[in-house]
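Hi C.,

You asked whether I'd gotten around to modeling the 429-residue construct. I have! Everything is below, sequence then structure, no commentary in between.
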Amino acid sequence: MAEAVLVDLFGLTLNSQENYPTLLKTLDAVRSHHAAKAKLLCIMCCSNISCERNGDLDTYELETTNGLSALLREFEIVSNPSMAASLYTIKQKIDEKNLSSIKVMVPMQRKTLMKAFIDQLFTDVYNFEFEDLQVTLKGGLLKQSTEISMITTQELEAIQNEIETYLRSLPALKGELTILTTPLISDIFIHGFTTRTGGISYIPTLSSFNLFSSSKRRDPRVVVQENLRRLGSAAGFNVKKFYRIKTDHANDVWVMGRKEPESYDGITTNQRGVTIAALGADCIPIIFADPVKKACGVAHAGWKGTLLGVAMATVNAMIAEYGCSLEDIIVILGPSVGPCCFTLPRESANAFHNIDPECVRLFESPNPYVDIRKATRILLEQGGILPQNIQDQIQDLNLCTSCHPEKFFSHVRDGLNFGTQIGFISIKE
């Protein structure tokens, strides 16, 4: 049974009293069939449905008008001139109730259009079922009586533009966009680490500056892309030349310009104007910069990647590909989970203890606390990076992501539906 029912009246004229009997019959059937189990009954329209009296009404008309008024109170009505705005508002109502099974009652000729909007605004978390809405209103007849099976390229572009325009108009949530930077990185680079404020993601664990979308999260790609657009505007990079790591929690590195692997936890480049980024939501987003050879890199270092040496693998790729020298490479560790909040089973923690006993707290316990930041620094220094060229304990970069929910996303703290921040770098054009 559907958890939410959406009735699409967007293309119909509603404010005519001669339409009230048909509308009353249609909505009453929806209510009777779904009200007992559905947690949300919603009507989407492009004009307000009103049942105000205009002049004298006979008894039948009065009863119909009053009946419709009473019935409408059992629905949430979303009225907006824009389909994008209406569906996004409805999505918020669905997400507030944590619903995922949605029945859409839509006129046959609008079904393909509705699906195109839904594909943009929802992810695979949601399960949609479509039912033909049988309603014919006087003055509101739709010209086509059969389903349009395809959306043209131009129509799809129009839908995408409508959604993007609407999302751009939304205010930033939870404060201003904040980018953490360090003076250790030369100004020939654009770089930074994001926090969780200044975006438009509204779901609590993803709000507000989530920068990763997946089929398992409720944030669609278009929302993440709008957050990224705002980041690019604030930081000064071109979002059309932006590349994220395809995380595998291993140590593969993509040298940009070579064939891209299916997954990798490091990227290096010497191409100007290209921005590369490492994801993080407890794992460490790491930035690498060589101002001499004008090359840079990023890495995603979770506990597995740390043990597999992803940080030094990225350094070695820069040396091999661009002729970088160890003494010239600057390494910045972004915000990550601290040893105060991160535990591993003792057999896994033992590998960190072997790196240095100071990387593990309460080692004799079944689940010792592990310091992946300290382990990363030690491995970088052992690999030849100068200690003074590693920055991991300054400003907000060393704050534990799990301990600071106002600043950072955290998988440890928030569970599977966690948001994502990034570390990014590019060489200025």
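If it helps when you're writing up: The mean pLDDT is 91.

Thanks,
B.
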